[in-house]
Structure formats: C-alpha cells, structure tokens
Amino acid sequence: MELFSAVLRAFFCGGILCLIGQILIDKTALTPAKILTSYVVAGVLLGAAGLYAPIQEWGGAGAAVPLTGFGANLAKGVREAVAEQGVLGAFTGGMKAAAGGLTAAIFFLAGLQLCWPALRIKPEYQRRRRPLLLCSSLRTAALGRCFGSWSG
C-alpha cells in the first residue's frame, strides 16, 4: 500500500507540474523553450531557498524528474560546493551535482542517433497543413527501426 501511495503522489506532483506548463502554453505567448527555461530557473530559485526539498520529499520522482527537479539539483550542488570550496564551488558545484543526469542524457541521445534514419518524416506527412503528433509516430518508427519490424 505504501508503494501505491508513493506512485500516486509522484503522479499527482508530476501532473501538477505538467498542468502548469500546459496552461502556460495555452494561455500565454511564451514559447516552449522559454517555459522549459523558466522551469529550470524556478527549480534553482526554489532549491536555493530550500522550498523545493519538501516538495521533492513528498512527490518523489514526480518532483525529481521534471526540469524543476534538475534546477533544484543544480542549486543543491552549488550550495554544498560553496560550503566545501568557497567561491569556486559556485562555478563547479552545479555541474558536479547534475553530472549523472547529463551523462545519461548524452548516452540516450547517442542511442537515438543510431536509430535516426527511422525518425525521418515521410513525404506524405510533410504536405499536411495541420500539426502532426510526432511523439507516437517517432516512437513507433524508432522502435520498429531498432527492432527490425518497420520497413520504411
């Protein structure tokens, strides 16, 4: 029952963060890049103020995985490095704290590059006037290309 409660809290916390992002996309003129950057900055500010730790403790992965969690991780690393190394820690602490996540992202992107030919958009999709939902199309194409079940 405790596992179910933790999963439910993570789903709720991550869902709230996604809901805020979707509202910002729908109701403001902000671009997705600006919204993503603001999520990282909000995470840094909340982490530096010590306000993100209780959210992360309650929400678990629902608060740790999104970009706000990345920003809070940067702030935590800087805070710890400054306590150990002084001013130099302000420049190195964030990267040391985020090194594992950045390394994983690089390796996942390298794996994606191996499947890249499968991710091209077919010419019939390029002629559409309405937006194409690429998430499921790309995932289907990439998985099919990687596992040999897609002939494109």
Question: Can you offer a commentary on this structure?
Answer:
78% of the residues lie in helices and 0% in strands. The protein has helices at 2-27, 32-48, 52-59, 61-64, 67-85, 89-114, 123-126, 134-147. The protein is globular. Mean pLDDT is 79; it is low at 129-152.
Mean pLDDT: 79
Number of helices: 8
Residue share in helices?
over 70%
What Rg is obtained from the alpha carbons, in whole angstroms? 19 Å
| Number of DSSP E strands | 0
What is the end-to-end distance? 46 Å
Strand content: under 5%
Using the alpha-carbon principal axes, give the shape: globular
Structural class: mainly alpha
The arrangement of helices and strands along the chain is HHHHHHHH
Provide tags for this entry.
globular
Concise account of the structure shown:
By secondary structure, the protein is an all-alpha fold. The chain has eight helices and no strands.
List the helices and strands and how they pair.
Layout: H1 2-27, H2 32-48, H3 52-59, H4 61-64, H5 67-85, H6 89-114, H7 123-126, H8 134-147
Helix pairs in contact: 2-5, 5-6
